[in-house]
């Protein structure tokens, strides 16, 4: 049963309608999707054209989504009504302007499923950099390539000690949907972070969306992880990639994207070091969480 | 009046008490001077189970209004309170809720706005929100703060209104001052404010709420908001009438105090209207026939009531806020209402940042109006 | 006004920014494309990869479980051709009226 209708305003090759649908297939018709200002706001149509979704959608200002979702969920709970409240927010809303809101909802362990679809820039307003734009990437506000790092949102959410944090990629659909199923069966603040390749923003041929979502995982720049009750582990193909030799060369991922076309050798090396450091951190966190055991 | 019930309370506690009786199910409040003791009292009520509600302690005022907006969409009766910087911080959501037309009640412990920092009373914060399509009322004393809280819940949820409502009560002057309070019985409040049965979200009727509206439809929503607020005036009057039958305290959008035979009329709103009434009485002792048009509901503005009450007399409007580069906001509203009549409207700007304004100073302004010695705009520094 | 029922009042009050579910909310998006996907059913193994990964949700299965593309809405992005494990889908010059196989 799918809940997204065809003929959307999404760019050709944009994975957003499919990514959202793969979640709604599991959470069902009682889903209430809370959408802050983002590409999805536009994809959801207008009052005149109608919306391409057969579930309740609540639009909110940029920074407000996690709190509006909180209010909806708390109200429905006091009324004894069943519904899954989902936030479907971009990286701009999640990591920048709405970070305090997300952090507050996580700290209070609100019973919402927060999904950040990360296309790594403020795409809706024309590709300006966000806190989640990776080092070296072109954007209209970083034409020479971003010098700062990509905020480690999944780790930040793990530090809030919420029941569930996972990273996802649409190229690995079994991993994707099993994580959504698990999150949907739990209570409390569940955080899903999916890498969402963007053809016009990352500058690649629209047909390569899934290929890039796959290469991101296979080169190690986007590890598939799952953090559940204090225990961190790698999932799917990422489980084998602790061994650096098994990761595909980063160039395979970068060369397909126009936004990395002019990346300097220096920045590329920094980027590679970022990835090595990331995998060391994952190994450390996974070992620590095993040592200290699961939280109940 | 039940002498056994008659009590005395600080403004913050009186509003908290009214909220408890109104039985909202979701509260979200962020502490800010001078509202904090209200929040603490509400937290106490919730912890002790005297108020069966959830108090969601979010991390900022912006999230406060986002949270109660969401809860109201889902059908909950909601409440919050804030002031000054906090009200501005939730400003974006105040506009959103006003535009979306959901019933909400917010108590504003009015306070000056920085820069420079000030924790003391004036009306700049509540006036800053006058364009948001919210209903706005101001209280003269603690009893009114209590009564207007109950009225705000009832009016905002009226099926022909369904708009958010804020009530202002002066920071420190009312919030932290103990005055007599004659509260209603719980059962009477239950009857006056029936259980809320209006929600905008229904999982069985999937749709988008607050989606993009293009240039051809946006203005139609706004015109409808205007229409609804016009209608809210009549509904508010009718509801206030009902309240008066219940309590023997009848409110109106405008209270005309000794205006019938007055030669000069002062217009004001908020706590200092009590001082203004004292000034009127003192002037009358001296043989000067003065009156006070006390504005209880500032939005929607009671143009017709002002016109009827002032009826050609000269006026001095007291503003506890200012629109820099222009004039006092209440003065502008009154001038607009009296346009085309023979009334001359003078403006006094006073009390900003909590500067104390005594009845004698108010009386002097009215006296000067009578003696042609009042400027078009006078600032009491 | 005062005599209306609650439902009539809510209707009259007009929900702000109400967007009803609808197919083709952005029009007949098939008109966007410059290329179009064509399925070679000889090669097709009915693995459903294209059905699952079509980002616009325009590929459905017929009664024989063969994938069928809705050319009214297909934007011609080429993802289906890219992901097909047996390369049964090719992107060809656009025929606005769709594939007349």
CATH superfamily of chain A: Thiamin diphosphate (ThDP)-binding fold, Pyr/PP domains
**Total DSSP E strands of chain B:** 16
Return residue spans of chain A where pLDDT drops below 50 for at least 5 consecutive residues.
Answer: none
Strand content of chain B: 15-25%
Distance between the first and last residues' Cα of chain A: 34 Å
On the 0 to 100 scale, the average pLDDT of chain A is 95
Strand numbers in spatial order across the main sheet of chain B: 3-2-4-5-7-6-13
The Cα radius of gyration of chain A reads 18 Å
Q: CATH topology of chain A, which one?
A: Rossmann fold
Task: Determine the structural class of chain B based on helices, strands and strand pairing.
Answer: alpha/beta
Class per helix and strand makeup of chain A: alpha/beta
**CATH top level label of the largest domain in chain B:** Alpha Beta
Largest interface: A-B, 46 and 41 residues
Total strands of chain A: the figure is 8
Low-confidence stretches of chain B: none
Determine the CATH topology of the largest domain in chain B.
Rossmann fold
Short description:
Chain A is α/β, with parallel strands linked by helices and 296 residues long.
Structural features, described:
The complex is a heterotrimer of chains A (296), B (381) and C (101). Chain A has 296 residues and is of the alpha/beta class. Chain A has a single domain (16-292), classed as Thiamin diphosphate (ThDP)-binding fold, Pyr/PP domains (Rossmann fold), CATH 3.40.50.970. Chain A has helices at 16-27, 39-43, 65-78, 91-97, 99-107, 153-159, 173-185, 199-202, 209-218, 250-254, 265-292; strands at residues 31-35, 56-59, 84-90, 113-118, 164-169, 190-195, 225-228, 231-234. In chain A, helix 4 crosses helix 5. In chain B, helix 1 packs parallel to helix 2. Chain B is globular and about 65 Å long. Chain C has 101 residues and is an alpha+beta fold. Chain C has a single domain (21-93), classed as Alpha-Beta Plaits, CATH 3.30.70. The mean pLDDT of chain C is 88. The A-B interface holds A 29-32, 34, 41-42, 44-48, 51, 53-61, 63-76, 78-79, 81, 83, 100-101, 103-104, 107-108 and B 25-26, 28, 54, 56-60, 62-64, 66-76, 78, 92-93, 96, 201-203, 206-214, 216-217. Strand 2 (56-59) of chain A pairs parallel with strand 9 of chain B, so a sheet runs across the interface.
């Amino acid at each position: 049963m799918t809940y997204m209708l065809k003929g959307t305003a999404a760019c050709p090759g944009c994975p957003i309608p499919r990514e959202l649908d793969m979640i709604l297939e599991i959470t069902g018709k009682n889903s209430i999707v809370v959408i802050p200002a983002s590409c999805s706001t536009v994809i959801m149509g207008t009052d005149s054209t109608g919306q391409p979704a057969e579930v309740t959608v609540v639009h909110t200002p940029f920074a407000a989504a996690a709190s509006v979702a909180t209010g909806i969920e708390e109200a429905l709970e006091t009324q004894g009504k069943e519904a899954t409240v989902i936030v479907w927010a971009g990286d701009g809303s999640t990591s920048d302007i709405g970070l305090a809101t997300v952090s507050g909802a996580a700290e209070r362990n609100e019973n919402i499923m927060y999904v950040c679809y990360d296309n790594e820039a403020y795409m809706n307003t024309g590709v300006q950099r966000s806190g989640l734009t990776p080092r070296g990437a072109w954007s209209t506000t970083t034409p020479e390539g971003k010098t700062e790092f990509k905020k480690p949102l999944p780790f930040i959410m793990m530090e809030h000690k919420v029941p569930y944090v996972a990273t996802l990629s649409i190229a690995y659909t079994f991993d994707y949907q099993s994580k959504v199923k698990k999150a949907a069966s739990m209570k409390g603040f569940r955080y899903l972070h999916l890498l969402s390749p963007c053809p016009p923003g990352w500058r690649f041929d629209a047909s390569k969306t899934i290929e890039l979502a796959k290469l991101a995982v296979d080169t190690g720049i986007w590890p598939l992880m799952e953090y559940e009750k204090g225990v961190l582990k790698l999932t799917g193909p990422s489980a084998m990639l602790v061994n650096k030799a098994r990761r595909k060369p980063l160039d395979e991922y970068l060369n397909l994207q126009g936004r990395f076309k002019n990346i300097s050798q220096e920045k590329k090396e920094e980027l590679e070091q970022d990835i090595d450091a990331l995998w060391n951190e994952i190994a450390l966190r996974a070992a620590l969480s095993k040592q200290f055991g699961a939280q109940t | 009046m039940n002498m056994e019930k008659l009590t005395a309370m600080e403004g913050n506690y009186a509003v908290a008490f009214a909220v408890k009786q109104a039985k909202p199910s979701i509260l979200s409040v962020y502490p800010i001077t001078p509202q904090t003791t209200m929040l603490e009292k509400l937290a106490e009520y919730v912890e002790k189970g005297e108020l069966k509600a959830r108090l969601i302690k979010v991390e900022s005022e912006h999230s406060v209004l986002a949270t109660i907006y969401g809860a109201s969409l889902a059908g909950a009766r909601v409440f919050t309170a804030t002031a000054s910087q906090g009200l501005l911080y939730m400003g974006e959501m105040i506009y959103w809720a006003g535009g979306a037309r959901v019933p909400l009640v917010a108590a504003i412990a009015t306070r000056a706005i920085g820069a420079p920092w000030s924790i003391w009373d004036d009306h700049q914060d509540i006036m800053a929100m006058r364009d948001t399509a919210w209903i706005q009322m101001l209280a003269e004393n603690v009893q009114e703060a209590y009564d207007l809280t109950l009225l705000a819940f009832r009016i905002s949820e009226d099926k022909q209104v369904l708009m958010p409502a804020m009530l202002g009560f002066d920071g420190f002057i009312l919030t932290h001052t103990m005055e007599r309070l004659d509260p209603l019985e719980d059962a009477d409040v239950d009857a006056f404010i029936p259980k809320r049965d209006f929600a905008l979200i229904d999982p069985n009727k999937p749709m988008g709420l607050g989606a993009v509206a293009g240039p051809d439809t946006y203005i139609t929503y706004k015109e409808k908001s205007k229409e609804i607020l016009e209608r809210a005036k009549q509904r508010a009057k009718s509801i206030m009438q009902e309240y008066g039958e219940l309590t023997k305290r009848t409110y109106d959008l405008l209270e005309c105090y000794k205006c019938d035979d007055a030669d000069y009329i002062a217009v004001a709103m908020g706590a200092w209207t009590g001082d203004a009434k004292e000034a009127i009485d003192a002037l009358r002792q001296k043989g000067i026939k003065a009156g006070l048009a006390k504005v209880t509901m500032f939005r929607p503005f009671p143009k017709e009531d002002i016109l009827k009450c002032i009826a050609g007399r000269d006026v001095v409007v007291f503003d506890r806020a200012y629109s820099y580069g222009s004039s006092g906001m209440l003065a502008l509203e009154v001038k607009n209402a009296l346009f085309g009549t023979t009334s001359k409207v003078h403006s006094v700007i006073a009390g900003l940042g909590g500067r104390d304004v005594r009845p004698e100073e108010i009386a002097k302004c009215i006296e000067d109006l009578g003696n042609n010695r009042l400027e078009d705009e006078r600032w009491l520094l | 006004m005062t005599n209306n029922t609650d439902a009539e009042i809510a209707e009259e009050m007009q929900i702000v920014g109400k967007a009803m579910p609808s197919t083709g909310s952005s029009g007949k998006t098939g008109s966007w494309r410059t290329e179009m996907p064509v399925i070679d059913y000889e090669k097709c193994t009915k693995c459903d990869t294209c059905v699952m990964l079509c980002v616009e949700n325009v590929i459905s299965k017929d009664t024989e479980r063969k994938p069928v593309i809705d050319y009214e809405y297909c934007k011609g992005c080429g993802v289906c051709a890219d992901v097909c494990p047996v390369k049964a889908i090719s992107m060809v010059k656009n025929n606005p009226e769709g594939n007349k196989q």
